[in-house]
Each structure stands twice: as C-alpha cells, then as structure tokens.
C-alpha cells in the first residue's frame, strides 16, 4: 500500500505539468491533479500490479479533463462567461515566462482540447504513439491525425502572433 | 534499405521518434530533396523544443502540500466529483485565449451560436473600428478639442447622456468621436489613442433589449470587442490590445459611461 502511494507521489510533478499544459491556470491545473489523485486513491485496487503508475494516472486524469470539457461545451457555459471570471483567469502565471514561452502556451490553449492533449502527451510528456493512444483511448491513426493537425494549428497561431507583432512594429 | 515514398505524416513520426531506424537514412534524403518539407520539419521541431522549454519548470516546482496530503490520506478522500471547479477555469481560459488570439475560435470552433443581438452589435462596433481607427486625418468628425460640443451633439443624436470616459490612467487619450448608423438606430463612436498610436474605440447605442456581457471577435487576426448590454443601451469597446489589457480598459470605460448616463 505504502509503495503504491509512494509511486503515485513520484508522478505528481509530471501530472502537474500535463495539467498545466491543458489548463494554463496554475490553481485550476492543481485542482485537476487533485481530482485525479482522489479518484486514483479510491480505486487503488484497480491498479494492476506491474502496470505503470504513470500510464494509469494519466489515463484517469485525461478522462476527467475530457469529460469536463465535453460537459462545458454541451452546456455552452463558456458563451456567457462573466467578464470578472475572465479577468481572474487572465492573471499572468506566477513564474516569469519569456515572451516566446507565453506565446506558445497561449497558442496551445487555443487549439482543440483533443488535439492539445494528443500533442502534449507525445511532444512534452514523451509517451510513444502506442502509449498515448492507449491513454487517450483512441486508435493510433486518430492519435496521429490529432498530433499532425494540432501541430499545424499551433504553428498557424504562432505565425499569426508573429505577423501581428510585425504589424504593430511597422505602425509605430 | 526500404524504399518508399514519404509524406508529411513521416515528419511527425520522425520528430516524435516513431520512424523506424532503418528508414531514417531514406527519410533524411527525402527531406534534403524537398526543401519545403525540410523547412516544415524544422519549424515543427523548433515548436516542440519551445513547448518543452515552456513547461520544463513545472517539474522543478515543489509538490503542493494539498496534493501530498491527498496521497497520504491526511484529509478524508471525498468523491472526486465534489470539487471540480477547475473546468470552469478551463472554459474561461478557452474564451480568454480565443480573444487574445484574435478570435481564432470564433472562426473555427465557436462554442455556442446563440446571442445574435450581442453578436450584431459587436460586429457593427468592430466594423466601425476597422474603418475609422485606420484613418489618419479623418478618423473622427468632431475632435477632442471640441469635447463639450462632441458630448452634447452625440448625446442628442443617440438619445443617451454621454460623457466621454477619461482613460488617461490607462494611457489612452480621447481623439474625438463621430455619429454612426447602428441597425435601425444611431450609435456614438468615441476614439482613443495611446502614445504608441494604438487605438481603441467605444461604441454606444441606445438600442438594446436584453442584458448581456462578454467578448467577441469576428475574424482571425481582427480586433476584439468587449460588450455590455442592458435595458436601453449597449456599449462595446473594441481594440487589438492583449485581451487582459483590453478587459481592464473596457471596464474602466464602461464604469465611467454608466456614471455619466446616471449623472
């Protein structure tokens, strides 16, 4: 039991990184991690001996994330967001981010959640296509197309940002 | 060596370490023969490096006490669904970022299609901003040097008591204003500029039926609108500022406008 908990504790930094790339806001990301940990502890018995704790935990967290994103979309709650809430979320993260980091973090937030998750899983978390497809519960072909589209979307957004910056400089 | 045609798909596989080792040499040769694909591969590789760098610091952060406590059961484990406030932030982040990136989402994946009245008002305000904020000599009909006349004239035409908000605390000076059509009624447009030449506009109309507030962007790369609608008036602030900054300026403008209406 204690071994399992120690193994879970060891995965927290990576879970936090994944959550942060999905959600941007630090507190919201840690809330997601906390939800994930609580669910994991309730289901500790479901964790097969020999199964990687990382894969098990990422699967739990990913499902929590995608379920909630779908609910939010279905209810359309994002459409009537009060401005105050938007402002609260828009607070810059506590750590100092370079402009390049901020641009790429913001662009990442703007791509669709499915693509974002697929891209992050492989490009940041370093899972193989097979592992990532397994965690996300999609066929390998779907995963690959999400990664490809996600990358293209991300690049398009970064190009737009760069172009807008160029326009501003020209206008000065 | 296996001979086969490569495609863009292989670029992603190569970047993600999924390309079989025995295909690597042929793939590299294919890249060398296709400068466009090579450039694409270089961009994607650079993006991957930037992504990893952007989140690298998270691994070094200490594990928050509240998360450690969950694992070691120092607080009773409750059903995971009971808190879940993070998803609201997730929804909010989607909107804020969509605005910040020039309404990219508005074009490709708009969440919800209702609220036509706000959309129409925001679109009119954005259209006016795009046309007049770009004008150098003819941006306004009445300049700020004639502010009293501007306020009286627009108030009479629009049918609201308009006081031009003072946005100097936000770095913006009033340039002037003009009268515009807004659907079947009229709108007042007030134009402001900061010392870098960045312009924002206020679009105020007396016509509105419902209460609403939000943000709107009509096109990728276009300016963003922050709007409020209430009984009897609608107010839209339009600009291409970062969305956090626009939200702050808009709120200040709206607050002063409301105070003016009631004065």
What is the strand content of chain B?
Answer: 15-25%
Average pLDDT rating of chain A: 81
- The CATH superfamily of the largest domain in chain A is RNA polymerase sigma factor, region 2, helix turn helix motif
Q: List the chains of the largest interface with their residue counts.
A: A-B, 86 and 80 residues
Spatial ordering of strands, largest sheet of chain B: 1-2-3-4-7-6-5
SSE pattern of chain A: HHHHHHHH
- N- to C-terminal separation of chain B? 82 Å
Helix content of chain A: over 70%
Gyration radius of chain B (Cα, Å) is 26 Å
User: What would CATH call the class of the largest domain in chain A?
Assistant: Mainly Alpha
Mean pLDDT of chain B: 81
Principal-axis shape of chain A equals: elongated
User: Any idea what the shape of chain B is?
Assistant: elongated
The appropriate CATH architecture of the largest domain in chain A is Orthogonal Bundle
Which fold name fills CATH's third level, the topology of the largest domain in chain B?
Phosphorylase Kinase, domain 1
Helix content of chain B: 40-55%
User: How many strand units of chain A?
Assistant: 0
CATH first level of the largest domain in chain B: Alpha Beta
Give a description of the structure.
With 172 residues, chain A is mainly α. Chain A contains 8 helices and no strands. Chain A folds into 2 domains: 89 residues, Orthogonal Bundle (Rna Polymerase Sigma Factor, Chain: A); 77 residues, Arc Repressor Mutant, subunit A, CATH 1.10.10. In chain A, 77% of the residues lie in helices and 0% in strands. Chain B is of the alpha+beta class and 263 residues long. In chain B, 38% of the residues are buried. In chain B, strand 3 and strand 4 form a beta hairpin. Chain B has 9 helices and 7 strands; from the N terminus they run H-H-H-H-H-H-H-E-H-E-E-E-E-E-E-H. In chain B, strands 1-2-3-4-7-6-5 form a 7-stranded antiparallel β-sheet, with helices on both faces. In chain B, 44% of the residues lie in helices and 18% in strands. Chain B has 2 domains: 53 residues, no CATH class; 166 residues, MucB/RseB, C-terminal domain (Phosphorylase Kinase, domain 1, 2-Layer Sandwich). Chains A and B meet through helix 1, helix 2, helix 3, helix 4 and helix 5 of A and helix 1, helix 3, helix 4, helix 5 and strand 5 of B.
